């Protein structure tokens, strides 16, 4: 398909440049509106009897709040169904939220709301070819050039407490596993209650499940333990900080394992979607005059923008299209369309001279 597109574009461009000597006979100004390119403007002028060149820009931005993720506690048990794992995780979360809610003074929610910012701004250079004398229908080839980062995802500020709690809980669990005090001040140490310590060791870490691994994941380098760990019953050392957790080449995650996203250092969860900045376009259009003097016209255009497969990268570096199968339909539906992008727009044109 790309080869056909580039051939068509080269044909239009060669025909246009080999046509009669160009001279600026008149100039048209247009306002445009469409999807996904939004609103914009264009300047156009004929370069021969059958060819016209158009250039301009379009702008579109939007924010939405329709994506939700659940905070999960502990790894999912493969012997249980997805629904059973969710119910068990919710039970654990409610117990932890009651305890930590007393510390933070906040009512903690298991759901995280995600904001999606969509930005699609483009410069356009297009060539129109009129195959018939009536000059109502035309074929277009050209390109859009714009921002590559079109989607940004991040949690709402109202969920900062929940995400801070995820980090707090995981740090508490590390302290419990290492039999370290929660706080040490002026030589005095404060430890978590034994019953709570026992529970959180048994529960497992907190994270946000958004999908499963598409493939086995191996350690690219030695990965070390970041904390000590002792058996809560026997007191036996399980591992020490700095011990090798995974040697280079060791299997870390199997294909199908659930992926648990943890907040970054700022207690945020984020992702970005990118496409190529140079976006070839091919399409067709129909133009009709609105006034008798033929100085004002309306056009309808439909075409395709050719892009690469969008890459959505999470804040910890995983690329969804390469690394994960999603289990959140709202998030999956919000990701950029698969190529090519369909484009539809309306153009109102006024001849300047």
Summarize this entry quickly:
By secondary structure, the chain is an alpha+beta fold.
How would you describe this protein?
- With 353 residues, the chain is α+β, with helices and mostly antiparallel strands.
- The protein contains six helices and 24 strands.
- The protein has helices at 2-17, 82-104, 160-177, 194-203, 320-323, 329-334; strands spanning 28-35, 38-46, 51-59, 61-73, 111-119, 122-129, 137-146, 149-155, 183-185, 188-190, 206-213, 217-218, 223-224, 229-230, 237-239, 244-246, 251-253, 258-261, 270-274, 278-289, 296-305, 311-314, 324-326, 341-351.
- The strands form six sheets. The chain has an eight-stranded antiparallel β-barrel. Strands 4, 5, 8, 11, 18, 19, 22 and 23 form an eight-stranded antiparallel β-sheet that branches.
- The longest helix is centred in the first third of the chain and has 23 residues, at 82-104.
- The two termini are 39 Å apart.
Helices and strands in order:
Layout: H1 2-17, E1 28-35, E2 38-46, E3 51-59, E4 61-73, H2 82-104, E5 111-119, E6 122-129, E7 137-146, E8 149-155, H3 160-177, E9 183-185, E10 188-190, H4 194-203, E11 206-213, E12 217-218, E13 223-224, E14 229-230, E15 237-239, E16 244-246, E17 251-253, E18 258-261, E19 270-274, E20 278-289, E21 296-305, E22 311-314, H5 320-323, E23 324-326, H6 329-334, E24 341-351
Antiparallel strand pairs: 1-2, 1-24, 2-3, 3-6, 4-5, 4-11, 5-8, 6-7, 7-20, 8-19, 9-10, 11-18, 11-23, 12-17, 13-16, 14-15, 19-22, 20-21, 21-24
Helix pairs in contact: 3-4
